[in-house]
Structure formats: C-alpha cells, structure tokens
Amino acid sequence: MIDFSVLPVYLTAVVALLLIPGPDMLLIASSSLSYGKKVGLFASLGNATSGIILTLLAAMGVSALIAMNPIALQVLRVLGGAYLLKMGWDCMRTQPSETPDVEQSNSLAATLYRRAVISNLLNPKALIFFVLFLPQFVSTQTSATSGEQMLVLGLLLNVLGLLFNLFLVTMIGSLGQPLLKNEKFRTNQHKFMGLIFFVLAIWLLASQVPTV
Predict the structure, then answer these.
(1) What's the pLDDT tens digit per position in 110-145?
(2) How far apart are CA 84 and CA 186, in angstroms?
(3) CA angle, corner 25, sides to 171 and 4, nearest 5?
(4) CB atoms within 10 A of CB 143
(5) At the N or C end, where does the chain have fewer CB atoms within 10 A?
(6) Shortest CA distance to 134 belongs to which of 50, 64, 47?
(7) What is the helix (H) or strand (E) element at residue 148, kind and residue range?
(8) pLDDT, tens digit, for every residue of 10-30?
(9) Where is the signal peptide (predicted)?
C-alpha cells in the first residue's frame, strides 16, 4: 500500500523526529519519573492512541479541513492550553496526605492515559504535523490512494513512536526508582507534575500555530 522506495527516507525522517524533544516526550518522561514505569507506559499508550486518531483524521482529509481554518486552530490551541492549566491546578492543590505510595501510584495510570490523549488531540500543532508531514511521502508509483498511503505511513509512525517511548519509560522509570522511595519527593510528586502541566500549557499558548 506504500511505495517502498520512499521508505528509507521516511524512516530516517521519523527517527530524527523522535529524537527531537517535544511536549509529548516531556509528559511521558515526567510521568515515568514521578510515578513509575506503569504510569509512564499508560502515558505512552495515550500518546499512541491520539496519534492513531490523528492519522485516521489525516487519511480521511478531516485534518486538512480543520488546518485550513485559522479560527478552528486557535480554538483548539486555547482549549488545549486551558485543559493543561486545569490539570496543573488540580495537581498543585492535591494535599501531601493524598500523595500515593509507589504501589498506589499505579492507579494514576488511567488518569495519565486520558490526559495524554486529550492534551495531544487539543494540540493544533500535532494536527498540522500530520497534515504537512505524511503527504510528503505519498507516492504516485503505487495503486493505493493517498488516504490509504497516509494511513499506513501514520500507523508506522505511531508504532515506532510507541516503541521509542517505551524505551524512554524503561530508562527513566528505572532511574526514578530511588526518587519514588524518597519521602520528600513523594510528598511533592503531584506538585512536580503540576509544574510540568503548567510548562506544557505555556508552551502551547505561547506558540504560533502554522497554517496550511
């Protein structure tokens, strides 16, 4: 369904993109550091889920329609920033006595999964990325339609991204184990995550959204 002659270039571009730090990497890394590998794993799965949804939207042409509407992009940006600010505030106002121990923190996995999905879907730059990046590798040398090719390319991107994030979770989760056993850090781990959400909100709200 894709032109295999463009695959080496595509894979090289994907690897380069994965190595560039971004908001997704920051959220997954901080989740793994603050709450352990399981929570980081679910944050990675949330990121992959949103990536699949964006891939489907791009393949169906829905993303392009949204990307051509500056008002829609700005609405997404404001909603995404507001959502991240709310998540940050919720974390900051959590009382130290409510901070879970290492075992109880695993219950946060579903919450971080949901937050990763929503924050990525409300990021207009993520939507623009799929609109601008995938079509570059659509070929006329195959019988598959552009939508079918974008679907396969997007799924490949998400699989490679998930594998990279799982590696990141394993490395950072292991390094963070001593922190999770530190009483002082555990008392403030929610506040650390709150700070990360505030940083992501500022990152999103202060960024310029490109138009197609």
Answers:
(1) 889 999 999 999 998 888 888 888 888 888 888 888
(2) 22
(3) 95
(4) 6
(5) N
(6) 64
(7) helix 146-175
(8) 999 999 988 888 888 999 999
(9) none
